[in-house]
UniProtKB/TrEMBL annotation, chains A, B:
Protein's name according to its UniProt entry: Transcriptional regulator PerR
An example Gene Ontology molecular-function term: DNA-binding transcription factor activity
Positions that bind Zn(2+): 91, 94, 131, 134
Cofactor entry: Zn(2+)
Gene Ontology process terms (BP): negative regulation of DNA-templated transcription; regulation of secondary metabolite biosynthetic process
Pfam families hit by this protein: FUR
Domain of life from the UniProt record: Bacteria
Alphabetic keyword roster: DNA-binding, Metal-binding, Repressor, Transcription, Transcription regulation, Zinc
Bound cofactor: record note: Binds 1 zinc ion per subunit.
InterPro entries xref list: FUR, Fur_C, WH-like_DNA-bd_sf, WH_DNA-bd_sf
The species this protein was found in: Anaerotignum neopropionicum
Family designation: Belongs to the Fur family.
Length: 142, 142
DNA sequence: TATTAAATAAAAATAATTATCATTTAGGGG
DNA sequence: CCCCTAAATGATAATTATTTTTATTTAATA
């Protein structure tokens, strides 16, 4: 696993504690946090960092393909250090956003995309519904 | 085709010129407009309508299943009078958002959804890429 | 037609994001 | 290692999309 500083350098970015912190935070979570959540998570270790820097950092990262932005219909965008297109599930009860790796799906999409008069660059599939945990909890209380 | 006033009445909504105008506008377009666009489109015929009313109307409609909200990663939400889950293409060059009806895809998603520990309520597929028109124009200029 | 609860318009408030700008800092050259 | 400078940061203001508030108007129904 490449060191974060090295990755930033390769992208032509100056290596700053703030950028390292944001990128590492995203590498170490599957939560798909938004800017505010990232900011809060880093506050204890980086008490001087500002929210504006988080936003600007995420914007740079996005341009350079270090993160992807994800909007699942909330007020704010979420961010993901996994930049390859991949599907997500969104629980409409607890709000959890999870990755969904299904090679099968990807291949099918690719095939179908070929049949369209449309050059597909990225496909975003979001499944909205009730996650297993919430469904089980619902059953207990009924 | 049912009259708009009748549809609103059946949903338990008071029938107002503003609501009729918004719903008809959405029924007669495939553009997936946002609130601002709807407001501007209705301005000539409904010069006194306010943007807040458009927002509130869209919110009611959404709750009652008359429209669906769609976020393709822009600053604002788009709205669609086609409430059944269906895929969209988004041209990253001209910004056009189009419907994509592929029964094949829907069925495949359904089957895959069954295999997950997740109760799928709605699936949103967005294909980002270059539309046919833009691609042809790009080829001409090269 | 009179009543009234609900809807509207206008304006203020809020939330997310972006821009501005003075200060600080990373990183290359000496 | 220290200096220099362009770039990054933090603080704050501005912007944009959306929601809330409230006084006024209106649709529905008796
Ligand atoms: Mn993900
Ligand atoms: Mn549509
Ligand atoms: Zn859940
Ligand atoms: Zn296009």
């Amino acid at each position: 696993m490449k060191a974060t500083a090295q990755i930033l350098k390769e992208k032509g970015l100056k290596v700053t504690p703030q950028r390292i912190a944001v990128y590492n935070m995203l590498l170490n979570t599957t939560e798909h946090p938004n800017a505010e959540t990232i900011y809060k998570a880093l506050e204890p270790t980086n008490p001087t960092m500002s929210l504006a820097t988080v936003y600007k950092t995420l914007d740079y990262f996005k341009q350079l393909g270090l993160v992807q932005e994800l909007n699942v219909g909330e007020g704010s965008s979420r961010y993901d250090a996994v930049v390859k297109c991949h599907p997500h599930t969104v629980c409409i009860q607890c709000g959890k956003v999870r990755d969904l790796y299904l090679e099968e799906l990807t291949e099918i999409h690719k095939k179908i995309a070929e049949e369209l008069d449309f050059e597909v660059r990225c496909e975003q599939l979001i499944l909205y519904g009730i996650c297993g945990k919430c469904r089980r909890e619902n059953n207990e209380n009924s």
